[in-house]
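check these tokens.
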Amino acid sequence: MTPAEMAAALEDTGRYRVFDVYRQTDGYGDLPPDATVCRLLYVDTETTGLEHDAEIIELAAVQVEYDPSTGRLGRILAARSWLEQPAGGAEVPAEVTALTGITTDMVAGQRIDDATVLDLLAASNLVVSHNASFDRPKLEARLPAFAARPWACTAAEIDWKAEGIGSAKLDYVAFRMGFIFAGAHRGEVDCLAGVEVLSRTLPVTGTLAMASLLARARMLTSRVWAIGSPFDAKDALKRRGYRWNDGSIPGSARAWFRDLQEDGADAELEWLRANAGCTGVPVRLTARDRHAARAMLIP
């Protein structure tokens, strides 16, 4: 029996599931001759910590073609990664090394190739990452040109729960989508795995993951801030789906906020007045500013 036949035989028993081990590919075939061909840049950063001012120690980027009308992916055009030494030669924290395998010695004297990254960015229509609210502020601080591109997030802008997938962690999503990827938690591997996820069909809706991502990224959304909510409203806000912003981003408010489609903002403001005893402030967001640090500021 071939490996494929053995896998099928195991699956047919109803007692086993067999998963592909991800193998790097040069793409997903040529797009149709009449397709509009765009390019996405899938990025991932590894940093010295989770703080808003943590420094990038690794940047990875994978550029791939896609058809914006169908979400179908085409050729992978580039897969690159760079290490960078923190400012002042600071050491890589031990907990970061434990997670990523990146050591202080590995980043010594290393620097991201800004020119190559900017060339890839200039030739891309969309930037994607699996945690854009983390990666986008870091990259905009390091390379401000990232602020000029629309962004999308494979963690936040695909409804994984509706697809029967209870966690948005990339390794778990990949597992539930039928493949596993091995190796340390490193940027290029994560980027390639994220692109692979986008190439696959979602298990419940049956749509391409990339098509679903594009549909959500194109929506207008509102970030509604519960300004001045009393402390005893916190449980109601949490049940409603609000998250707490601790004000660590300079200029941002210490307040609860919730993201929703723009046409739901008026009803949400009414709910806040009736149930949380406060005035809500809606901020309109698009892919041009969604996930950026500036999206946490109230005009």
